[in-house]
Design goal:
Blueprint: H1 6-12, H2 20-45, H3 52-59, H4 63-69, H5 73-95, H6 106-123, H7 125-136, H8 141-163, H9 174-193, H10 206-221
Helix pairs in contact: 2-3, 2-5, 2-7, 5-8, 6-9, 6-10, 8-9, 9-10
């Protein structure tokens, strides 16, 4: 049996070769531009400002291009939400690869994880605020459940790193405690860092906040807080 290349077959048929890979690459590039623009508008201007015309203009695309890909704004927002949290989960899994943490104590792992959480909340503050508001106020109950599951899964990856050092944890239910503790920390960060008007916190900096959250989590798990420097007391006037 003779084997012919795809180009040879197309030429004999008198047809022009199809450039599917190129079209697919351009399509992917356009989609990425659109989603990046949506993230930028959400982060800088909030959920109410994230209109289809505004996002299209930010991406340098026509409104028609947006509607050819998404039937409405809600479908676009869902895509942004799912991509953001899927990327967060992938990044967490890579950063928390057990091979990277060999020889690291549970206490040091807790402090590193919480510093990373605080940094991530600060870095993506506007976008997180908009996406969480979008999910929490969505009329579709099934989507709210899926959105919450995606958000929770990213936090579970963080707790899994601590649970891997379960032999050091004194809490009688290490698995439940590690997950619950991370959820409590996330709730605290949602309250302290995400509002447009940042609420007054009893800590002078993000580093101080991370230190106290780590101390709280370590105490809850029954882990020794070895290596942590005590916070300096500030005089009150």
């Amino acid at each position: 049996m003779n084997v012919h290349s795809h180009d040879d077959t197309v030429k004999r048929a008198g047809a022009r070769p199809r450039a599917l890979p190129t079209k697919q690459a351009r399509s992917r590039e356009t989609l990425d531009r659109l989603l990046e623009a949506a993230e930028a508008v959400l982060a800088e201007e909030g959920l109410d400002a994230a209109t289809v015309p505004g996002i299209a203009g930010r991406a340098g695309l026509s409104v028609g291009v947006v509607y050819r890909r998404f039937p409405d704004k809600d479908a676009l927002m869902r895509a942004v939400y799912e991509r953001f949290f899927a990327r967060s989960l992938d990044a967490n899994r890579e950063a928390l690869d057990p091979a990277r943490w060999e020889g690291v104590s549970a206490a040091d792992a807790v402090r590193a994880v919480i510093r990373g959480l605080v940094h991530g909340y600060r870095r993506h503050r506007g976008l997180l605020r908009a996406l969480l508001l979008y999910a929490q106020t969505h009329p579709d109950r099934d989507f709210r459940r899926r959105a919450d599951a995606m958000n929770t899964e990213t936090l579970r990856e963080l707790g899994a790193l601590i649970l891997a050092r379960g032999g050091e944890i004194a809490h009688p239910r290490p698995e439940a405690a590690t997950e619950f503790g991370v959820l409590v920390i996330a709730a605290a960060l949602n309250t302290l860092l995400l509002p447009e008007e940042r609420r007054t916190a009893p800590f002078a900096s993000d580093e101080a906040l991370a230190t106290e959250l780590a101390r709280m989590y370590l105490g809850y798990l029954g882990l020794p807080d070895g290596g942590a420097k005590p916070a300096r007391r500030q005089r009150t006037r």
